[in-house]
Amino acid sequence: MGIRLHLFPKAMAMTQTITLRRPDDFHLHLRDGAMLQAVLPETTRDFARALIMPNLVPPVVTAAQAAAYRERILSALPAGADFTPLMTLYLTEDTDPNDLARAHAEGIAVAVKLYPAGATTNSHSGVHNFDKVRPVLEKMAEIGMPLCTHGEVTDPEVDIFDREAVFIDRVLEPIRAATPGLRVIMEHITTRTAVSYVRGATGGDLAASITMHHLIINRNHILAGGIKPHYYCLPVAKRETHRLALVEAATSGDGRFFLGTDSAPHTDANKLLPCGCAGCFTATNTMSCLAEVFERENALQHLEAFTALNGAAHYRLPANTGTLTLTRSEAPVSFPSHIETGDGPVTVFDPGFALHWRVAE
Ligand SMILES: NC(=O)N[C@@H](CC(=O)O)C(=O)O
Ligand SMILES: [Zn+2]
Ligand SMILES: [Zn+2]
């Protein structure tokens, strides 16, 4: 299908449109209950599929829990939505390899999520001792079930800005060396170290997802000129050189990098606290922001690969058949500053610059 760029003069201004395959989001938090109900339409409007994160309370650990969560998502779908949730299992030290294999074989879950215990929101049921999950990882390598990682160590001695790079050395590389054939997705990477690690891997077993917001913000956005809780997410945004490496990877067309938004809704009440929650809510304007980023890099021809082809190929799924059209206008387009949920308002990510691309109805 490829990309079609149309430039046609219209009255005064130039209108530009791009048509791509409908995108996939390979890292999404939908939560549950009233929050699920409110945030789901923000994703299904643009995305055909999303990899659903299992960090609920209690976490989605078993095949039965994943099947039940999928049913709750399907019941919350807006009328007429064409959307497939791809479920994940939350890896714990008690995960049963046979239950996990059943979830994979029956198409209930497509991947397993590794949270180092304490690394991020609702990760306390995650892994403390990586040796304890060795049999599960071996089973996953055997059946070809991918491992998605929240790649940060939790050692309090390690500076928070170094936790991703240290995770690669201390956890990821040893796991991959000990488990040949294990397919791994480094999720929401934030450093040039991670970009280089993915680029240096051979054998096709390693890929990485990148969020939209990490292509836009660096740590100054969080900390300079006053603290901005709505830009606080984990892994925390790093310095500008890292952001530039992420932009280069995402816009390059390299099949090992693809979109996982990590859209992570928290109510404003939970963000704006002395100890506020980590997460940016980006589902509403991801495609608009990405089009802007790719346009600035003269890389609109790779937007489809990043959002609709590379991830599907890595997860061994067919690409979507439907299309999504983005239209550029000279006048900036606006998005709501927040969405209402039954739990309270959730602020929508503000890229900090004018957006010109919108998804056509
Ligand atoms: N990214 C975040 O800052 N938060 C995520 C958890 C995660 O993906 O690490 C969340 O569930 O809120
Ligand atoms: Zn994470
Ligand atoms: Zn996440």
List keywords for this structure.
4-stranded antiparallel sheet; alpha/beta; 361 residues; 11 helices; binds N-carbamoyl-L-aspartate; 14 strands; 8-stranded parallel sheet; 19% strand
Write up this protein.
Pathway: Pyrimidine metabolism; UMP biosynthesis via de novo pathway; (S)-dihydroorotate from bicarbonate: step 3/3. Catalyzes the reversible cyclization of carbamoyl aspartate to dihydroorotate. With 361 residues, this protein is of the alpha/beta class. It has a single domain, classed as Metal-dependent hydrolases (TIM Barrel). Helices cover 31% and strands 19% of the residues. The strands form three sheets. An eight-stranded parallel beta sheet has the order 3-4-5-6-7-8-9-10. A four-stranded antiparallel beta sheet has the order 1-2-11-14. Helix 3 runs parallel beside helix 4. The longest helix has 16 residues. It starts with a strand and ends with a strand. About 1% of the residues have low confidence. Bound molecules: N-carbamoyl-L-aspartate and zinc ion (ZN) (2 copies). The site of one zinc ion has 5 residues, from loops. The site of N-carbamoyl-L-aspartate has 11 residues, from loops.
Short summary:
The protein has one domain (22-287): Metal-dependent hydrolases (TIM Barrel), CATH 3.20.20. 31% of the residues lie in helices and 19% in strands. The chain has eleven helices and 14 strands.
